[in-house]
Amino acid sequence: MKKAVGFDQKIQLHQLDFIANEISRMSSRDVLYQQVDEQLMADIGGAKSRANARTILFKIWFLVPDEHMELRDRALDMFQRATPEEKLVLHWGMCLLAYPFFKDTIEQLGYLFHLQDEVTSEQIGRKMKGLYGERRRVEVSVNAVLSSIRSWGVLEMEKRNTHTIAVQINVFSTDIKKWLVQVMLIVTGKSVIELNHIAGEPCIFPFELSVLESELSGNELEITRQGVGRLMVGLK
After folding, report:
1. What does the H/E/C string look like for 201-229?
2. Which helix (H) or strand (E) holds 192?
3. How far is CA 29 from CA 19, 50, 119, 125, 138, in A?
4. SS3 of residue 28 by DSSP
5. CA distance 66 to 64
6. pLDDT by 10s per residue, the chain, length 236
7. What are phi and psi of 171, to 5 degrees?
């Protein structure tokens, strides 16, 4: 059985910002649908491409499965007072939750950037075709993810098809740190992550995440000790 792909259209930050802002004040799903469609007309001329982008935006922020609804609601609450950098972190986490293909592409990028300073489109394409099969749809979706995160300011392409990390974004908010760690545990399927290893998780490679034990206290996460000096973080 072929693995689902789905993320097949370039998505821009202002489009993500728009739907996240409108959800909290929408009167109905149909109204939100129309508002997002009108917003996308300024960026996307073709009806099919616009429909694809709208589907992706709704899956990321609105049509969220029940098990992720609490995370989405917390993200929307934090979004209202977040800085632009913090909003990017929230969009990033919601994309990881919504699209396994996005998560896998980002994770492969993170692995490669831990080994080298530059990653080519061909390298990441080969990695993803190894996971999802030799399909044209996979190639299209890899390009969609890469072009999206380039437009978000995460990657730069200084020479043809060769990407570097544009900037490392520091995450300072304790609430967002806690939220992002919870997202990481869910999307990676890990029961625990060592506290000192959180910052090196490939799926958050653009972010500088220094996490203290005291910052992860609460109802969602649990910290346990393994051996001497090893603190493990898991979901409750």
Report:
1. CHHHCCEECCCCHHHHCCCCEEEEEECCC
2. strand 192-194
3. 11, 17, 40, 36, 30
4. coil
5. 6
6. 578 888 999 999 999 999 999 998 887 899 999 999 999 999 998 999 999 999 999 999 999 999 999 999 999 999 999 999 999 999 999 999 999 999 999 999 999 999 999 999 999 999 999 999 988 999 999 999 999 999 999 999 988 889 999 989 999 999 999 999 999 999 999 999 999 999 999 999 999 999 999 998 877 899 998 877 799 999 98
7. -105, 115
Q: Are residues 153 and 142 in the same domain?
A: yes
Q: Are residues 45 and 132 in the same domain?
A: yes
Q: Is residue 70 a part of any domain in this protein?
A: no
* Residue range of the domain that includes 139: 1-63+99-167
- Contacts of 118 by beta carbon, 8 Å cutoff, 6+ apart: 162, 163, 164
Note if the pTM is more than 0.90. Answer: yes
Q: How many CB atoms lie within 10 A of CB 113?
A: 18
C-alpha closest to that of 105 among 128, 83, 86: 128
In sequence order, which ranges of 27-120 are alpha helices (DSSP H)?
29-41, 47-61, 69-79, 84-98, 100-115
